[in-house]
Amino acid sequence: VAALAGIPLRWDDWADIGSLAPAVSHDWRAAALIGRPQIVRALGEYDLAEILLQNEIAKRWPEVHLTPGYAWGGSGVREDPLNDFSQESALGVNFELPLFNQHQGQIVEALARRDAAGAHLIAVQAQLFEQIDRAALAWPRARSAWDDAQGVLQIAQRQQQAEQRALAAGAAERAGVAAAQVATTEAQLLLLAAAHE
Fold first, then answer.
1. What sign results for the dihedral spanned by CA atoms 79, 81, 84, 90?
2. Does the pTM exceed 0.70?
3. pLDDT at residue 78, rounded to an integer
4. What integer pLDDT is reported at residue 116 of this predicted model?
5. Which of 164, 162, 153, 158 is nearest to 186 (CA)?
6. How many other β-carbons are positioned within 10 Å of the β-carbon of residue 130?
7. CA pseudo-torsion sign 162, 163, 165, 169
8. HEC states along the chain?
9. Cα distance between residue 197 and residue 191, in whole Å
């Protein structure tokens, strides 16, 4: 931030609205969609649901879990290391045997969560496409507002120049010049507002 503080910020072509085209290509729509944080979050939720579904599917088959055993000694509870064979140690063994239903209930729940995440992803995508389409439809109105604001600014600038010439010739007062300067400034603000739109 400190390094950027000394650099002047310039955008020379900010007023080149005439070079903008309202044509919406498929690639442009896709690029506008991919960069949005809502779609990134929805994709992350779908990926997480897919991973959880794969974990539940993997549990259909028997699993064996080996864990170190715990023993009570003179110094309290101790954990026996699995790789130390120089002393007597305990070993914990767990079996998960999904014999009858092969974990079908949890798989169906995970599948439903993934389907819900997929539907949410499609809904977010539809919302974003609707925003893009609305912006494309608003382009003619925004362009018209820009053109109108440019016309108002040109008239205000001509009026200000005329007032300054009249003041120099002694045919006007300073109040007229000040009013023309205010009108020009307001027209510039109107042009900025139209560019923002």
1. positive
2. no
3. 57
4. 96
5. 153
6. 10
7. positive
8. CHHHHCCCCCCCCCCCHHHCCCCCCHHHHHHHHHCCHHHHHHHHHHHHHHHHHHHHHHCCCCEEEEEECEEEECCEEEECCCCCCCCCCCEEEEEECCCCCCCHHHHHHHHHHHHHHHHHHHHHHHHHHHHHHHHHHHHHHHHHHHHHHHHHHHHHHHHHHHHHHHHHHCCCCHHHHHHHHHHHHHHHHHHHHHHHC
9. 10
Residue segments in the chain with a per-residue pLDDT below the cut of 70: 9-26, 68-91, 97-99, 196-197
Tokens representing 10 are 């310039």
Q: Which two tokens stand for residue 69?
A: 């055993």
pLDDT digits (tens, 9 = 90+) for 96-131: 766 677 778 888 999 999 999 999 999 999 998 888
Q: How many Å apart are CA 172 and CA 179, to the nearest integer?
A: 12
148 Cβ contact list (under 8 Å, min separation 6)? 194
Give residue 88's pLDDT: 56
How many alpha carbons lie under 13 Å from residue 125 in its C-beta half-sphere?
A: 13
